[in-house]
C-alpha cells in the first residue's frame, strides 16, 4: 500500500522501546512465545506493557498480537484510534494478515528492536445505523460490514453515492475493504482486492437486480435499507460487533477517518501469503 514509512521515523526515535503484548488464546505454545518475547524485549531495555495499560493511556510504539487474523483484527481496531501500530504473530490457521509465524518470532523481535520495519496503513470502514432519520449506532471495521444474519430471506435496497444501485434478496450484503476482501467477502463469491478499494458482495443471493459483486472506489458511500418484514437482521462489524435493525432502518457505510497501522517486517509476500491461504482452504474443503 502507499504511504509506507518506517516505525522509527513514525515514532521519531532511533528504535521502538515500548511494546505491548496481547493474545486471546490460552494454549501453552502461545504463552511460551509471549514469555520469550517478554524476556527478549526486557533484556534489550524495552518496557513491556499489557493491553489494558495502553488502553488506559500508557504510550507504546507497537502492540504485538499473538494469535490468528481474528486476534489481529481485534487488536488493530482497538489501537487504530490511538495511532499505535500492530504486529501480528500467527498462531492461527492461515494468518494472512500476520507479518510472521511463531517460527519467525526471534527474527521479528530483532528487526523490531533495530527499527528495521515499516508501517502499512490500512483503510477502515465506518458504519452508521439510522432509524427514522436518527443516528442510533456507529462502529468501525477493518475487514467488512455485513448486513444480514437471519433465518429468513432478506430484502435489502442498495444505493451508492445517492444513486439507486439495486435490490438484493438473500442472506445479506457485504461491504469489504482490501484487507477484508480475502475473508467473508471472498467466501461469498467476491473479488480479492490487491489495491485500496471496496468490494460490495451479495451473500447467497436468490435474486439481485444488481451485480452479485462489484469493486468500488474508497470514496464511495453505500446505503442499505432494510425492506424486510417479520425479521430483524443484524449489522455486523468484523464479525465481532453487531446491532439489530428493523424495517425501513438504513445503514450507511463509508470510509472511516481512522486507519489501522500494521507493522511490516519485509519477511512476507502478500501474493505468496494469498496463494498459501487459497491452498490451505482447498485442503480443508477436500478433507471436509
Q: How does this model look, in words?
A:
Helix content is 24%, strand content 39%. The chain has 288 residues and is α+β, with helices and mostly antiparallel strands. It folds into 2 domains: 5-117 and 265-287, Probable inorganic polyphosphate/atp-NAD kinase, domain 1 (Rossmann fold), CATH 3.40.50.10330; 124-258, Probable inorganic polyphosphate/atp-NAD kinase, domain 2 (Tumour Suppressor Smad4). The strands form 3 sheets. Strands 1, 7, 8, 10, 11, 14, 16 and 19 form an 8-stranded antiparallel beta sheet that branches. A 6-stranded antiparallel beta sheet has the order 15-13-12-9-17-18, with no helix packed on it. Strand 4, helix 4 (69-79) and strand 5 (86-90) form a beta-alpha-beta unit.
CATH superfamily of the largest domain: Probable inorganic polyphosphate/atp-NAD kinase, domain 1
CATH architecture descriptor text of the largest domain: 3-Layer(aba) Sandwich
Report the span from N to C terminus.
35 Å
Secondary structure category = alpha+beta
What string gives the helices and strands in order?
A: EHEHEHEHEEHEEEEEEHEEEEEEEH
As for the number of domains, it is 2
Secondary structure tally, helices? 7
Form type: elongated
If you consult CATH, what is the topology of the largest domain?
A: Rossmann fold
**Rg (C-alpha, Å):** 20 Å
Question: What is the strand content?
Answer: 35-45%
Amino acid at each position: 500500500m502507499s504511504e509506507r514509512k518506517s516505525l522509527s521515523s513514525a515514532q521519531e526515535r532511533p528504535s521502538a522501546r515500548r511494546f505491548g503484548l496481547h493474545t486471546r488464546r490460552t494454549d501453552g505454545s502461545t504463552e511460551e512465545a509471549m514469555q520469550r518475547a517478554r524476556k527478549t524485549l526486557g533484556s534489550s531495555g524495552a518496557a513491556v506493557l499489557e493491553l489494558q495499560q495502553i488502553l488506559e493511556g500508557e504510550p507504546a510504539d507497537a502492540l504485538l498480537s499473538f494469535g490468528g487474523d481474528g486476534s489481529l483484527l481485534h487488536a488493530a481496531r482497538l489501537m487504530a484510534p490511538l495511532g499505535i501500530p500492530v504486529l501480528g504473530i500467527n498462531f492461527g490457521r492461515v494468518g494472512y494478515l500476520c507479518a510472521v509465524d511463531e517460527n519467525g518470532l526471534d527474527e521479528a523481535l530483532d528487526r523490531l528492536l533495530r527499527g528495521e520495519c515499516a508501517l502499512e496503513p490500512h483503510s477502515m470502514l465506518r458504519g452508521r445505523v439510522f432509524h427514522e432519520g436518527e443516528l442510533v449506532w456507529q462502529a468501525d471495521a477493518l475487514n467488512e460490514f455485513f448486513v444480514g444474519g437471519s433465518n429468513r430471506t432478506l430484502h435489502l435496497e442498495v444505493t451508492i453515492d445517492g444513486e439507486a444501485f439495486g435490490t438484493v434478496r438473500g442472506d445479506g450484503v457485504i461491504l469489504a475493504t482490501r484487507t477484508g476482501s480475502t475473508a467473508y467477502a471472498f467466501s461469498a463469491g467476491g473479488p480479492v482486492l490487491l489495491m485500496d478499494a471496496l468490494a460490495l458482495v451479495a451473500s447467497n443471493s436468490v435474486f439481485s437486480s444488481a451485480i452479485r459483486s462489484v469493486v468500488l472506489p474508497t470514496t464511495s458511500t453505500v446505503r442499505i435499507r432494510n425492506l424486510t418484514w417479520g425479521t430483524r437482521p443484524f449489522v455486523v462489524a468484523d464479525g465481532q460487533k453487531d446491532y439489530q435493525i428493523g424495517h425501513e432502518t438504513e445503514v450507511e457505510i463509508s470510509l472511516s477517518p481512522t486507519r489501522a497501522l500494521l507493522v511490516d517486517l519485509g519477511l512476507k509476500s502478500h501474493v505468496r501469503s494469498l496463494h498459501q491461504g487459497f491452498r490451505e482452504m482447498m485442503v480443508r474443503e477436500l478433507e471436509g
